[in-house]
Amino acid sequence: MTTSPLQKVPVRMLLRLTVCVFGLSLLLLIFDKSSLFLRRIGPVTFAPPNPLERHVDVSNLTETRISDPDSPDNPDSLDNPDSPDPVPAAVGERKATSDIKPETPFPNLDDQHPVKPDTSVRNVTGIPSSHQNDQTGPAPFDVADPLEGYIGVPDGSKQLGLHCGVCALVSSSGQLLHYKAGNEIDEADCVIRMNEAPVLGFEEHVGSRTSLRVMCFRSINLVPENTTLFSRAGKSSLLGWGPPRDMDTRKGKAYKKLQRLETRYPDLEVYRLTEDRMRYADRVFEAETGRPRIKSGAWLSTGWFTMLVAMEICDVIKVYGMISEDYCRTHPDDNTLYHYFSKRWNECGYYKAQQNVRSGGHRFITEKTIFARWATQNNITFLYPSWDP
């Protein structure tokens, strides 16, 4: 009987050949599926590290991440309204870490070229003004009634009726600790302060009176209801600002806190910025820099809102403790604290880091350049340190 060639092949070899063919078929199938998946998702790229996630070490700034009460590099921002509040670090800490998440970066911002104000003459539509041609400063919110953007809490029909001859606008800078300007500050008709900057224990440097305190939504939420900021202030006003979620009259967290403060302190008149007023502040920023605030990655500081309201209610503004836009460049070894009541940050290091962060940063240096321009056409002077615009 004749034996076929297939019968001469050992069974073991046939099994091995079958396994090899099956394995090769499986690999080809996997490769085909992988190719299809890659074609669907497009090319794979690796994004550069977010600047807020890396360690910042500029001029003794020792923060792992940048945080500020009115900044959107914390979750509570106009562009990220649904994130929870982080737990604030204790005052006096040099280093702090948290679960703070930055906003989504804006790809068109070149963080190596900070925003510079556009000082050219331009016609800003949508902002009523009695001096559109010379553009000496921010156009008033309403020429006939410039304070309609500041309304009462809880009585929304009530408007901020404050008018002052000479105002002392007191910054929160550690620069104030280098001087004893307290008595001079208290001599002003009105004294304006910002956020949670205290008076108690610092009277020699910052004065003891408070006529108006401007607070961001973050500071409003975090300040204790039994704080001496209001219990010792006597008759004064509080002006709060924040995103619609926090200032919602029905369930806004900051708004509810303002209501409780208004009830607790009979001598405290409480107001808030309207949404229109918030948008107006954005338009002023765009008019002065030539770039929309959100697209530039900037977040307006409480100082920005405070300067705007000061120019509406004050005939003369004396700004205490605010450095010029070139101060840090001309004082490279300066170690002044960012806040006079906290050792947490170095002022110049923090300013530089915020100026160059891709998104969610305050443009402090840009803002001060704009303030200097306004000062040349308005009755604004800068003291302690003193500098000419």
Report on this model:
This protein has one domain: sialyltransferase cstii, chain A (Alpha-Beta Complex), CATH 3.90.1480. It is elongated and about 110 Å long. The chain is 33% helix and 13% strand. It has 14 helices and ten strands. Residues 37-69, 71-135 and 140-144 have low confidence and may be disordered. The strands form two sheets. An eight-stranded mixed sheet has the order 1-6-5-4-3-2-7-10, with helices on both faces. With 389 residues, the chain is of the alpha/beta class. Keywords: Disulfide bond, Glycoprotein, Glycosyltransferase, Golgi apparatus, Lipid metabolism, Membrane, Sialic acid, Signal-anchor, Transferase, Transmembrane, Transmembrane helix.
What is the percentage of strand-forming residues?
Answer: 5-15%
| Helix segment tally | 14
Inertia-based shape:
elongated
Tally of strands: 10
User: What do we call the CATH topology?
Assistant: sialyltransferase cstii, chain A
* Cα gyration radius (Å): 29 Å
CATH architecture: Alpha-Beta Complex
Whole-number tally of structural domains = 1
The CATH first-level class comes to Alpha Beta
Order of SSEs: HHEEHEHEHHEHHEHHHEHEEHHE
In terms of per-residue confidence, which ranges show pLDDT below 50 for 5 or more consecutive residues?
A: 37-69, 71-135, 140-144
Largest sheet, order of strands side by side?
1-6-5-4-3-2-7-10
Query: Please, what is the average pLDDT?
Result: 73
The main sheet comes to: 8 strands, mixed
What distance separates the N and C termini?
114 Å
Helicity range? 25-40%
Which structural class do you get from the secondary structure elements? Answer: alpha/beta
